[in-house]
Structures are given as C-alpha cells and as structure tokens.
Amino acid sequence: MAVQTRSTLAPDVDAAPADLTRTSSSSARNEVLLRVLRGLTGFILPALLVLVWHLASVSGAVKPYLLPPPTAVVTTLWELALNGTLAKHVQASVTRWVIGFVLGGGLGLLLGSWVGLSRGAERTLDTSVQMLRTVPFLAMAPLLIIWLGLDEAPKITLVGLAAFFPLYINTFAGIRNVDRKLIEVGQVYGLSRAEMLVRVIIPAALPAVFTGVRYGLGVAWLALVVAELMGATRGLGFMLVEGRELVRLDIIVGGLILFSLVGKIVDQFVRLLEARFLRWRDTFSGG
Questions:
Q1: Nearest to 189 by CA among 199, 177, 179, 202
Q2: CB–CB of 121/260 below 8 Å?
Q3: 206-260, pLDDT tens digit by residue?
Q4: What is the DSSP string of 141-160?
Q5: What is the Cα 229 distance to its own chain's centre?
Q6: Which of 2, 21, 104, 218 has the most crowded Cβ, counting Cβ within 10 A?
C-alpha cells in the first residue's frame, strides 16, 4: 500500500518550539529566583540579630527599660504609620537629604572635575579645599545656626558640606588616575579635547565617581541626624530627640532602624545605577 505514516521515532517538529519556549521560560524564572535569593542573602545576619534580640527579650536576659523587644518597636512604628506621623518624619528627612546631597555633592563633582582637569585650578584651589576638609563639618553646626537661623537652610547646608568632600576627592582622584595610555590612544585617533573628555576621561573616572556618590550619601545621611537636632520639628532626627525626651526607647530604636533601612535602600539604588552605567567593566567580583 502507498499510505505513508509518520514514524514514531521521528521528532515532533510542531511540538519542538513549544518545548523550547517552556524551557526558556523556566530558565528565566529560575534565574530571577536565583537573583532574588542572592539579594536576600545579605539580610540573613540582620534577621539572626533580630531573632537573638527577641529571644533575649523573651527570656528576660535584656531588660525592657534598656532595650525594648522587637514586637514593641514594630507596634510603635505601625501606630506611627497609621496616624501619618511616620510618613511625615521620613519625608522631611529624605527631602533634606536629597536637597543637601544634590547641592553639596553636585558642587563637589563640578569642582573636583575642574581641579582634576586643570593643573592651574589644582594649584589654586586644592590646598584650600584640603584645609577645609580637615575641619569637622559637624563642628560648624553652631556657626550655621548663628549665620542662617533655625530654619531649613542650616540643616541643608550641613548635609551639603558632608556630601561635598567625598564627591570632590573621588572625582579628582578618578580623573587623575585615568591611564595615560588611554589618553595617548585618543590623541593618536585625533580626538578633540571635548571628545577626549566624553569618550575617554569620563568613562574611566566613573567608577571612582560612583564610589564618591555612595560614600557621600552615607556621610550626608549621618550628618542629617545632627542637622535635625538644630531646632527641627519633624524628621527622623527629631523623632530620636522626641523619644529621648519622652523616655520612649521603642521610638528611639524604631528611628535607628528606619535610618538603616532608608540608607540601605538608597545605597542599593546607587549600586544598581553603577551596575548599569559600568557594564563595560571586566573586573574581579569575588570568588
């Protein structure tokens, strides 16, 4: 007979694309799950510390008047969140932080770039900046209050001072550490000064700049606590002062936890930006 039948051993070409799609989708899901698990690995130690804290509180090893239990801190934060107080404090602190960092860090970035690119600017400005850097910016708080009053200006200025120097130093160092061979290659290809800056110097200096951004954000966040002690009526620093005056350790500990969480979130955001803009790097990432 001339009837032809498909061999049972022949591959099912119609099902192959569907199988490949399912395999690809499963691999993508597994990759996403693996990334999430890797991201959560860093929270294992904090979770263990909270567990130890809870067990110590339950067993009575730590007295509540010295350190309240985690449940009391969570309850307090939840109550503050429900009545809107927590959002008000967080918004005030983050606003001061962002404005101060943009102003101070932006000025540090610009000045560091100018000094890094110009020997004349280095001879004229770098000595003065380095002398100012050795003055504790927190010690300037009384002067800022006298000069600027008790409004937002001294608080934002103090945060800006904290962010200025890390950006200045890292930007300057990043530009001056650009490999001279890269500059020579650019000169061989006839790049203009502007093209050299955009295509060679800035990409090579970006790793140091991002380091300065992360460090500057951290120092500015610490300065924010002192800034909000200067007559503030809202903010996480004010929340700590209020907890101290009311002898509410749950409010104090809750404020410290919020400081750590907000700082971690912003730092993680900067790291994501760094990974995106520096994808071209082929550097050692640990064993």
A1: 199
A2: no
A3: 999 999 999 999 999 989 888 887 777 888 888 888 888 888 999 999 999 998 8
A4: HHHHHHHHTTSHHHHHHHHH
A5: 23
A6: 104
| Integer angstrom CA distances of residue 82 from 86, 88, 253 | 8, 11, 18
From residue 274, give the alpha-carbon distance in Å to each of 16, 170, 209, 210: 40, 15, 10, 7
Q: How many beta carbons lie within 10 A of that of residue 80, not counting itself? A: 20
**Residue among 77, 117, 213 nearest 126 (CA):** 117
How many angstroms separate the CA atoms of 275 and 113, rounded? Answer: 22
Lowest mean pLDDT among 130-134, 189-193, 205-209: 189-193
The one-letter code for the residue type at 11 is P
Residue type for 254, please?
G
Q: What is the pTM of this model?
A: 0.81
Instruction: Find the radius of gyration of the CA atoms of the chain.
Output: 27
Q: In which residue are the tokens 């620093």 written?
A: 237
In the predicted model, is pLDDT for residue 5 greater than 50?
no
H/E stretch holding 30 reads helix 16-41
**Residue matched to tokens 């770039």:** 113
